[in-house]
Amino acid sequence: MKSGDKYAVVCLAFLLGSAIGKVRSKKKIIRLNKQPSIEQYLNRLTEFFDCNYLEYAEDEFLTLVDFGMSPENAFGSLVNGGFGQ
Fold first, then answer.
1. Rounded CA separation 32/25 (Å)
2. Which pTM value belongs to this model?
C-alpha cells in the first residue's frame, strides 16, 4: 500500500467517524431538550396540590433535587406518594 493510499484511508475513517459522532450527538441533544425544566415541574405541582400544600410541596421538590434526585423522580415521588392530598 502506498503512503497516499494510507492517507486516503485515514481521512476516510476520520470523516466517517465524525459523521457518526455528529448524528449521535444530535440525537442526544434532542433527547435532552424533551425533558421538562425544574420550573416546568414546579408549575405542574399546581395540578396535583391545592394552595394549602403547594408551597410545602415546592420546597420538598427542590430539596429532593438539591440532594441529587433527578427532577423527574422527585416530581414522581411527590405526586405518586400522595403528599398533601
1. 11
2. 0.57
Query: Which residues in the chain show pLDDT less than 50?
Result: 85
Structure-block grid coordinates of residue 71: 427532577
Query: Which of 80, 46, 74 lies closest to 61 in space, CA to CA?
Result: 74
Give whole-number Cα distances, 70 to 2, 31, 66, in Å.
54, 15, 9
Give CA–CA dist 74/57, Å, rounded.
11
Supply the angle between the helices 71-80 and 38-48 in degrees, to the nearest 10.
10
> Do 72 and 35 form a contact (C-beta atoms < 8 A)?
yes
